[in-house]
Amino acid sequence: MFGVVDLPTYLAGLVLIILLPGPNSLYVLSVAARRGVRSGYTAAAGVWCGDAVLMTLSAAGVASLLQANAVLFGIVKYAGAGYLAWLAVGMLRAAWGMWRGRGEERAEETGPAAAPGERPFRRALVVSLLNPKAILFFIAFFVQFVDPAYAYPALSFVVLGAFAQVASVLYLSALIFSGTRLAAAFRRRRRLSAGATSAAGALFLGFAAKLSTASA
Predict the structure, then answer these.
(1) Which residues contact 24 (CB under 8 A, 6 or more apart)?
(2) Alpha carbon of 171 to those of 40, 102, 128: distances in Å?
(3) DSSP state of 114
(4) Do 29 and 171 contact (CB within 8 A), yes or no?
(5) Alpha-carbon distance 204 to 88, whole Å?
(6) What is the rounded average pLDDT of the residues 36-51?
(7) pLDDT given for residue 104 in this prediction
(8) pLDDT at 155 over 90
(9) Which residue did the predictor score with more confidence, 11 or 70?
(10) How deeply is 68 buried, as exposed, middle or buried, from its count of CB atoms within 10 A (0-12, 13-18, 19+)?
(11) At 4, phi and psi to the nearest 5?
């Protein structure tokens, strides 16, 4: 179908890959828990736009360029790792402020505050784009399911990308609505909110470290 081969295997692999935790999904969950469904979908839109750009770049051969150019790969890699580390520091600072806060009643009234000047769409978009491993993944995964003899390989990439985006929409929607349920618990318990924010910050530091050691 449209130059796509072994579609069931592709869909099975796609589901497993989508379910793996990563900085994109974690950030969407964090935004939904702190700011509600609307902001969660705003962050998710940033992820979807970023993924669409990466798929387009992969289809255009940019992934191969990154793979062949160690300097360019290193620039993108360390820029992405630095941005993730910056987000992690912001989360940990917010968590420290929660730990130092006093009074459960105050937590009930205000709930977990949003970071000053936070723009969920832009942050999620940048997190998605500054990830060379994602670009390399898209080309390495997609190419296995494109028939080399098909006359319109771009159409094959579009079909594969559409399936990937649908899976991402379903998964991130589940995370968003789960996050709003977590928000109710966060509003009741400041310690829970601080602990969750600390864990998110620690995970982002881990993502940054993993990306900084990635190789093409």
Answers:
(1) 47, 50, 124, 127, 128
(2) 12, 36, 16
(3) P
(4) no
(5) 5
(6) 91
(7) 45
(8) no
(9) 11
(10) exposed
(11) -95, 130
| 189 vs 153 pLDDT, higher one | 153
Q: What is the mean pLDDT of the chain?
A: 74
Distance separating alpha carbons of residues 148 and 160, to the nearest angstrom: 14
CA distances from 34 to 101, 112, 161, 215 (A): 17, 6, 30, 34
- For residue 64, the model assigns a pLDDT of 62
The three-class DSSP label of residue 53 is helix
Q: What is the DSSP letter of 116?
A: T
Length of the chain: 216
In this prediction the pTM is 0.69
- Which has the closest alpha carbon to 168: 54, 78, 82, 7? 54
Give 1: exposed, middle or buried? Use CB within 10 Å, 0-12, 13-18, 19+.
exposed
For residue 96, give the nearest of 207, 208, 185, 193 by alpha carbon: 193
DSSP at 115:
P
Structure tokens at 41: 């979908």
Among 31-40, 46-55, 87-96, 146-155, name the most confident range.
46-55
Give the whole-angstrom CA distance, residue 158 versus residue 26. 26
Confidence class for position 105, pLDDT limits 50, 70, 90: very low
pLDDT of residue 112: 46
**Cα separations in angstroms, 60 against 52, 56, 156, 162:** 12, 6, 13, 17
Whose CA is closest to 32, among 135, 171, 165?
171
